TrEMBL record:
Biased composition regions of type Pro residues, renumbered to the chain: 15-26
Chain ranges of the Aldehyde oxidase/xanthine dehydrogenase a/b hammerhead domain: 46-152
SMART domains: Ald_Xan_dh_C
Protein name: Oxidoreductase
Composition-biased stretches (Low complexity): 1-14
GO molecular function, one term: iron ion binding
Chain positions covered by the region annotation Disordered: 1-42
SUPFAM superfamilies listed in its UniProt record: CO dehydrogenase molybdoprotein N-domain-like, Molybdenum cofactor-binding domain
Domain of life: Bacteria
């Protein structure tokens, strides 16, 4: 890492690193800590990289899925006669074609592949069709006659407690009552707040697609953009009535994922149709189908009461957190655990009493989206900190510094923070970083005003606001999740191959794998094998776990190969392998007596080793919300600068400054890109992204009705400080990079709008009416 890697940089107008050095340039540095470019960068840039939507097979059929137009209805009959009789239609499948009860689920098996008796959300799958042309498949799906008895939907999560059960398992998915400290404690100063967080869609940039190919043994192969192939295989096999060994999942190119590609609901109908027809079947979902089918961030209602002393030190936090899970459980239990555990934020709170619920409704399904649970509560507790600072007349930064968490402090779950927690240092770096210059009141700069060209009423109506936020996320799984990954490293003829079922979702894992092997073995050419379920499992690509668990497995395997390589040399020269080092493709001894190349030492041999990595175990939260539920924590501080038209309520984010606890920088360029992407996703949650519903019906399920931030909405993103305090229990000491800024950025933007307008801003995304100033302009 160069000395300026942790200083302020602008990441909005950067030039990607070249694929390779020019003929007259030195080759790029290798190993950890360098900005090694991705091996597939050129193919993705030129559009030749094969994604799931690009797949093809001889004799290919096309699939289409019929989805419910109602959020809640009883199915009286399903007539597939007309569809099955259409020319070109090869198969129609419904719930009757699925063995057993036809349900699946990663955490809770409660979601039917096809609805049978009841429809529980808008867009729920009813049937699927395979035909020889995609238009024929869509027409056939539309020809399926379904008779519904429309029922009153339950769309208010607060009413779900008393409503008739929407599912055999009931409406309450989980309740966590966290109790920590003395409930009778009262602070000298009390502030209260009610906060609402909207339904953010992960909006994957590529089509959700897949291909199913039947096998001669009666099994099936699924080619999909899966982020957890082994779990997807097991879920699919159960729905097919097959042993897992007869189902193979092959991971195709994943065009980015923030949790949205974890739902196997798109691929199970494919496999059923392939098994029924004996032909390859492909499905490429439309954008509308994606909005209807996959999981979204949990809409959340939060009530808070903060107690503090006269100096602004927190005494007690009380909160009620209600997550709307939609129709099925999915990851709601885990999201609720994160929300409750982090409800007080990265602050020292001696007394905390939090009630958390996740409930079923007839709203669109909710599930894992980056920073789930933690993002919603961050927006609320940081709003409370702003209120408390205003009531006490204390600078908001100073108030946060007085309460900042540090290593050795105890969370409200009674878990001691053993990892580095430089929260105060992160915030201090932002406070001292220069603010951007104020805009000029000149016609040529009008495009910089809120609302775009000619969007602002007049420059005099624009107010600037500066806001701060602190956030935290957990690493790996939680509450007793068995985290384990297996990797194999093989070296032959100067080329290393890594075999690991960790999926590259855009987080840069394959690049990291190459860097680990390069640093450990001194081999420049490293290939990472394609992922499928014939390999040992590596688990899902969430919570930065592949950097830790899969990267740790690769490192251990590479070190075992290193020992195999060095032992003959050490024995020959009468020294231990610890006295030999590998650097730049050369092996040297501490005294300089031995000097050879890795290629010469290999002498044509093939060396390989397989290793596992399993972090220390965690435990579920108990009936009082107590327990060591998390392997580790990562922290982030964000300062937002916004311009607000206080008459129209339009908001322009001018700059986002970030200071982050990263443990160790493994790839500076890749890390900066991850932080920039996380901040941008957070801005979307703060200002524009809200999948709106009306009585359970998704309104405008497309990218015209759902406003994603574009490159024109992205502000200057300044990486002010990256603190490298290695977590000693983590391989390489690194921490996850992208979830923390996603969690923290929306709260910072809301804080800045509060500062500009004087309004409470208690809802995300921020509505224009909430950004109109409380008092008229002077």
């Amino acid at each position: 890492m160069t000395s300026d890697a942790a200083t302020a940089t602008s990441t909005t107008r950067t030039t990607p690193p070249p694929e390779g050095p020019a003929p007259d340039q030195e080759p790029p540095a290798l190993g950890l800590g360098t900005s090694l470019p991705p091996a597939d960068a050129r193919a993705k840039t030129e559009g030749t990289f094969p994604y799931a939507a690009d797949l093809w097979a001889e004799g290919l059929l096309w699939a289409a899925v019929l989805r419910s137009p109602h959020p809640h209805a009883r199915i009286l009959s399903i007539d597939t006669t007309a569809a099955a009789g259409m020319p070109g239609v090869r198969a129609v499948v419904t719930h009757e074609d699925i063995p057993g009860d036809g349900s699946y689920g990663r955490r809770v098996v409660d979601r039917p592949v096809f609805a049978s008796e009841l429809v529980r959300h808008h867009g729920e799958a009813i049937a699927a069709v395979a035909a020889d042309h995609p238009d024929t498949a869509r027409l056939a799906a539309a020809a399926i006659a379904v008779e519904y008895e429309v029922l009153e939907p339950v769309t208010d999560p607060e009413k779900a407690f008393a409503a008739e059960p929407l599912h055999p398992d009931g409406n309450l998915i989980r309740h966590i009552p966290l109790r920590y400290g003395d409930p009778d404690t009262v602070g000298e100063v009390i502030v209260e707040g009610l906060y609402r967080i909207g339904r953010q869609d992960p909006a994957p940039i590529g089509a959700e697609a897949g291909l199913a190919v039947p096998r001669p043994d009666g099994g099936v192969e699924l080619y999909t953009a899966s982020t957890d192939p082994h779990t997807d295989r097991d879920l699919a096999a159960a729905c097919f009535g097959l042993d897992p060994e007869r189902v193979k999942v092959v991971v195709t190119g994943v065009p980015g994922a923030t949790g949205d590609r974890e739902d196997p609901g798109f691929q199970i109908p494919l496999g059923l149709l392939a098994l029924r027809t004996g032909c390859p079947v492909k499905l490429a979902a439309t954008r509308e189908e994606s909005f209807l089918g996959h999981a979204h961030r949990h809409p959340t209602l939060l009530r808070y009461r903060h107690h503090a002393d006269a100096e602004g030190r927190l005494v007690k936090v009380e909160a009620q957190i209600l997550l709307d899970a939609g129709a099925y459980a999915d990851s709601s239990s885990e999201s609720l655990a994160a929300a409750v555990a982090f409800a007080c934020g990265p602050y020292v709170v001696p007394h905390a009493f939090i009630e958390g619920w996740a409930v079923r409704t007839n709203n669109p399904p909710s599930g894992h989206v980056r920073g789930e649970g933690a993002m919603q509560v961050c927006a609320a507790y940081e709003g409370q900190m702003d209120k408390l600072a205003a009531k006490l007349g204390i600078d908001p930064v100073e108030l946060r510094l007085r309460n900042a968490l540090s290593t050795g402090d105890i969370l409200p779950t009674s878990q001691t923070v053993t990892c580095p927690a430089p929260v105060a240092e992160l915030l201090g770096e932002l406070r001292d970083f220069p603010l951007p210059a104020l805009p000029k009141d000149s016609p040529e700069d009008d495009w910089l005003l809120p609302g775009g060209p000619e969007g602002a009423g007049e420059p005099g109506a624009v107010r600037r606001g500066v806001g701060y936020a602190l956030g935290m996320v957990h690493m790996l799984g939680a509450e007793g999740t068995d985290e384990v990954s297996t990797a194999t490293v093989r070296v032959h003829d100067g080329v290393a191959t890594v075999i690991c079922a960790a999926v590259e979702t855009g987080q840069g894992f394959t690049t990291l794998a190459r860097q680990i092997v390069q640093e450990t073995l001194g081999v420049e050419e490293v290939h990472v094998a394609a992922v499928d379920t014939d390999q040992p499992p590596a688990g899902p690509a969430t919570h930065g776990r592949h950097t830790w668990v899969s990267g740790g497995a690769i490192e251990r395997a590479a070190k075992m190969v290193r020992t195999q390589l060095l032992q003959p040399l050490a024995h020959k020269f009468g020294m231990s392998t610890e006295l030999l080092q590998i650097a730049d493709g050369k092996i040297t001894s501490y005294d300089g007596v031995l000097s050879t190349t890795v290629t010469e030492a290999m002498d044509g041999k093939e060396l390989w080793a397989t290793a596992q990595c399993r972090p220390h175990p965690t435990e579920p939260l108990d009936e009082s919300g107590q327990g060591d539920a998390f392997v580790g924590l990562a922290f982030c501080a964000v300062r937002a600068v916004v311009d607000v038209d206080i008459e129209l309520g339009s908001v322009r984010v001018v700059e986002m400054a970030v200071a982050q606890d990263v443990g160790r920088i493994l790839n500076p360029s890749q890390l900066a890109t991850r932080i920039e992407a996380g901040v941008t996703q957070g801005i979307g949650a703060a200002l524009t992204e809200n999948l709106r519903t009306a009585r359970g019906l998704i309104r405008h399920p497309d990218l015209t009705g759902y406003a994603l931030p574009t490159s024109l909405d992205a502000p200057d993103i300044r990486i002010v400080k990256l603190i490298e305090e290695r977590d000693v229990v983590a391989p390489f000491g690194a921490k996850p990079a992208s979830a923390a800024p996603v969690v923290t950025s929306p709260a910072a933007v809301a804080s800045a709008v509060r500062a500009a307008t004087g309004r409470p801003v208690n809802r995300l995304p921020i509505r224009p009416q909430a950004a109109v100033a409380a008092t008229p302009k002077a």
